[in-house]
């Protein structure tokens, strides 16, 4: 396939019906470090692996609070993610100013998707090179969405994006039936277990390279602090999802 | 409060109202919120339109009424309906709550006030959402006040005593209706721009109910009217 004939810009289709620029943008998401999200009836948990560009550098933050009831985890071009993050925060503030209530989650994801799609239908623009996992809680319930550079968005019970995310998704496929009724602690341990599947052999989870954010129906978005992260990581070896089945 | 914009060629701003609606009285009761208005729109001191419905249903669980310039009332109804319709566009099952409408109206009124071109209205937004009663006043300046009872116009002067003596926030629907009817009876006697035909609407768990217009009882057969005072003196 002579890709290079059809991949110069977004306004050229390939004979197979693909927009290569959009597909390449989705590759950028796959190159980002892993982040995942999972939800129960009451909570949503976001876990991400932070990358350190060099030993001298700090770790790149991957989760951003959008509003008290909503947060995102990013995979891909951080600069593009900042643009979308700013947009989402502004929309939430405007909605709050006008209506004195929280922006419905699905509606904001729809707006982001519209914005992303716009970039895929112009000769002079490029798609956003970032995928978002949007966690949020509104009167319609507990939500976890994924957005794509293509402008598509999907709602999930649990999802992982970024590099080696397939390993985490495989973990989810085995255990996601337990998530709905899980407690917050179980949910966090599931999330960390899934991330553990996706790290390299010589890497270790510690409170520096892992980021965990939680949202609950009565809980605003917060990050776990270093001590809490250490405690949860310490519980990982003893964590056995099978025991959860016996409880039910 | 009248601003006269005499500058020709430039945008004119609202100076004073033309067709006006009278007082609105709204109360919460045990299980919902009830709003009452009369059915008159005045053209200055002329009772021009006597059969006007001045309570609008905005959504399944929200109603809206106002006193002041009636064309502004009609415009606000359109603006609030727009919000409800936008829910269809997103198709996500999320509908604004009564409080969303109330706050939106406050923001809209404030914006217009800042441009010295207000919506010449005292607005009342009432609703029932998630088991909770909602009642708010938004005035011409964009002030937003949530309360258990609201009176606009002349009702603020004549009816507060009646309300505080005969109403409490946990009374029954019928008790609340009687209080409102009594208030409009007094208003008809004392407010020159009031009418004796009123309309009640209430929102509860089941939704919105707008009732038929009804005529308030009025009593005119006082001795003082039957036998005029100066005639009596004359015969004595």
UniProtKB/TrEMBL annotation, chain A:
Q: Which SMART domains match?
A: Proteasome_A_N
Per UniProt, subcellular location reads as: Cytoplasm; Nucleus
Q: Does the keyword Lyase apply?
A: no
Database matches in InterPro entries: Proteasome_alpha, Proteasome_alpha-type, Proteasome_alpha1, Proteasome_asu_N, Proteasome_sua/b
- The record lists the membrane-crossing segments as none
- The chain positions of domain Proteasome alpha-type subunits read 6-28
- Any one cellular component term from GO for this entry? nucleus
Q: Tell me which Pfam families the record gives.
A: Proteasome, Proteasome_A_N
Q: Which GO terms describe its biological process?
A: ubiquitin-dependent protein catabolic process
Q: Which UniProt keywords apply?
A: Cytoplasm, Nucleus, Proteasome
Q: Could you confirm whether the keyword Nucleotide-binding appears in this record?
A: no
How is the subunit organization of this protein annotated in UniProt? Answer: The 26S proteasome consists of a 20S proteasome core and two 19S regulatory subunits.
Q: Which family does it belong to?
A: Belongs to the peptidase T1A family.
Protein name from the UniProt record: Proteasome subunit alpha type
Q: Which organism is it from?
A: Paramecium primaurelia
UniProtKB/TrEMBL annotation, chain B:
The UniProt entry's GO biological process terms, in alphabetical order, are: proteolysis involved in protein catabolic process
Keywords (alphabetical) are: Cytoplasm, Nucleus, Proteasome
| Residues that span the membrane, as ranges | none
Q: Which domain of life is it from?
A: Eukaryota
Where's it found, cell-wise? Cytoplasm; Nucleus
Can you quote a single GO CC term?
cytoplasm
Q: Which InterPro entries match?
A: Proteasome_beta4, Proteasome_bsu_CS, Proteasome_sua/b, Proteasome_suB-type
Q: What does this protein do?
A: Non-catalytic component of the proteasome.
Subunit details: The 26S proteasome consists of a 20S proteasome core and two 19S regulatory subunits. The 20S proteasome core is composed of 28 subunits that are arranged in four stacked rings, resulting in a barrel-shaped structure. The two end rings are each formed by seven alpha subunits, and the two central rings are each formed by seven beta subunits. The catalytic chamber with the active sites is on the inside of the barrel.
Hey, which family's this protein in? Belongs to the peptidase T1B family.
What is the protein's given name?
A: Proteasome subunit beta
The scientific name of the source species is: Paramecium primaurelia
Taxonomically, what lineage is the organism? Eukaryota, Sar, Alveolata, Ciliophora, Intramacronucleata
């Amino acid at each position: 396939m002579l890709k290079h004939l059809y991949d110069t810009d977004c306004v050229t289709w390939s004979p197979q019906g693909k927009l290569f620029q959009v597909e390449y943008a989705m590759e950028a998401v796959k190159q980002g470090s892993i982040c995942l999200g999972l939800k129960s009836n009451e909570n949503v948990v976001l876990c991400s692996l932070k990358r350190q560009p060099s030993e001298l550098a700090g770790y790149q933050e991957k989760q951003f609070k959008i509003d008290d009831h909503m947060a995102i985890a990013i995979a891909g071009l951080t600069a593009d993610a900042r643009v979308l993050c700013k947009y989402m925060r502004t929309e939430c503030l405007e909605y709050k100013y006008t209506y004195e209530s929280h922006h419905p989650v699905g509606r904001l994801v729809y707006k982001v998707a519209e914005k992303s799609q716009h970039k895929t239908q112009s000769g002079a623009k490029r798609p956003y090179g970032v995928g978002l996992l949007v966690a949020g809680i509104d009167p319609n319930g507990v939500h976890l969405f994924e957005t794509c550079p293509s402008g598509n968005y999907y709602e999930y019970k649990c999802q992982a994006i970024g590099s080696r995310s397939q390993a985490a998704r495989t973990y989810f496929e085995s255990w996601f039936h337990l998530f709905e009724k899980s407690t917050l602690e179980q949910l966090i341990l599931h999330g960390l277990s899934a991330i553990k599947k996706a790290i390299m052999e010589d890497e270790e989870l510690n409170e520096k390279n892992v980021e965990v954010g939680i949202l609950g129906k009565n809980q605003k978005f917060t990050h776990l602090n270093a001590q809490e992260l250490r405690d949860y990581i310490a519980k990982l070896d003893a964590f056995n999802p099978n025991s959860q089945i016996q409880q039910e | 409060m009248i601003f006269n914009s005499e500058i020709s060629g430039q945008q004119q701003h609202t100076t004073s109202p033309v067709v006006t609606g009278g007082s609105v009285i709204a109360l919460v009761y045990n299980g919902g919120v009830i709003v009452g208005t009369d059915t008159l729109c005045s053209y200055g001191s002329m009772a021009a339109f006597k059969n006007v419905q001045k309570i609008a249903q905005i959504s399944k669980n929200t109603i809206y009424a106002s006193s002041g310039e009636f064309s502004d009332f009609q415009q606000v109804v359109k603006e609030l309906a727009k919000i409800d319709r936008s829910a269809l566009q997103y198709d996500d099952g999320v509908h604004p709550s009564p409080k969303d409408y109330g706050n939106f109206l406050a923001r809209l009124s404030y914006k217009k006030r800042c441009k010295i071109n207000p919506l010449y209205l005292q607005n009342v937004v009432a609703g029932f959402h998630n088991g909770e009663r909602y009642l708010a006043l938004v005035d011409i300046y964009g002030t937003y006040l949530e309360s258990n009872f609201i009176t606009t116009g002349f009702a603020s002067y004549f009816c507060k005593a009646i309300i505080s003596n005969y109403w409490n926030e946990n009374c029954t629907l019928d008790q609340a209706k009687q209080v409102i009817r009594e208030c409009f009876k007094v208003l008809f006697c004392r407010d020159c721009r009031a009418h004796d035909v009123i309309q009640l609407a209430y929102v509860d768990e089941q939704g919105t109910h707008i009732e038929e217009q009804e005529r308030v009882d009025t009593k005119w057969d006082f001795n003082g009217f039957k036998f005029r005072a100066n005639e009596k003196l004359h015969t004595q």
